[in-house]
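Quick illustration, no need to memorize.
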Amino acid sequence: MRNTRRNLIAAVAVIGAFATATACGGGSGSSGSSASGKSGGTYNFWDPYPQFDASSAWGKLVAKCGTDAGVKIKRTGLDTTDLGNKALLAAQQGNAPDVMLVDNPVVSTMVEAGILNKTSDLGLDTKSIQKNIIGAGTIDGAAYGVPIGANTLALYYNANVLSAAHVDPASIKDWASLTAALEKVKAAGKKGITFSAINTEEGSFQFLPWFWGAGADLTKLNSDKGVAALSLWKDWVDKGLAPKDVLQNTQTTSWQEFATGDYAFSENGTWQLGNAEKAGFPNGVISIPAQNGGAAPVPTGGEFVTVPVQKDTSRYDTTKKIVTCLTNPANLLATDTTLAYVAPTAEVQDKQTAANPKLTPWVDAVSAARGRTSGGLGTKYPTISQPMWTAVQGALSGGKSPKDALDEAQTAASKG
């Protein structure tokens, strides 16, 4: 094994870069407890869902999977970043939890730290998982977890605002037609589009569909294609088609703006479906358009069920039963409904859309999504993402041109 202690210390810094983990089901707060994994019939289970207590559907499912495996599960719900850092510390101390759900970009960091098992070594079957979804947790051709579900981004629209501006959402096919729609909305006295360009991972997450939709690559932030994407956002802000407060907006506050009923569009995620139902105005969803037409690639969000390395390898047989229970089709359907996730398998996706046709555009979006750490980026991604969101901030605030901002970002990313 590599120098585990050094890698663990480095991994803590990387996970800190994901302090506002995007597109996850987790909320704030924590209810930590140490994980010994040594108490006979008790298996320790950590997840990023502190908002769900033992009486919730999720809490009951976790407990049932333990009972079915013949053990008791001690579940701890932690904030996403807190979970990652505590997991690395627990691994360093030799008392990692038996099962752990982690945000997909963090998987590669934990693999680099040497604390996760390969699914193939445990005999876990991942053949039915969509390749692009499991790709976020695949390093050097090996999967290190089983995705419990996925979510991503699209454009919500306010049907009333578009109707008043004489805009048909079906007419939006590319950047030019979207910008034209925003201009019509502004001329009709309403507001255009709201999104999150905050200086955290959320800002990068929201910028990626436009960056990838221009054909840009994360290994060359300052390509002409990358500059085109940042120029699009800057033009929208400069022309009043998007508000200046996108610089401070989280995905939550961006949604709150859309919920006022004044905006035509909101770039947001699957997790807002419940709020969309309660919005008080007719709304719908379209794919984020690529620059020259078609749907832009969008980043994959969601968690992986992982199995940390244990000193007592005899525990893995029971752990495998717990993971298999959590990720079987029936439980995935129930879980992904609860967490507003798109299932990672076509079989369960079909059941989801049959029950709720409004999920269809989200299934399509997830099918075309990319993992942020995919393509061999792995732990390099945070060293690229931070300069990228810094460039977005610099350009939208007016401090730098998109080209200069991305030139600086590329220089910083190259040093990382």
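The mean pLDDT is 89.
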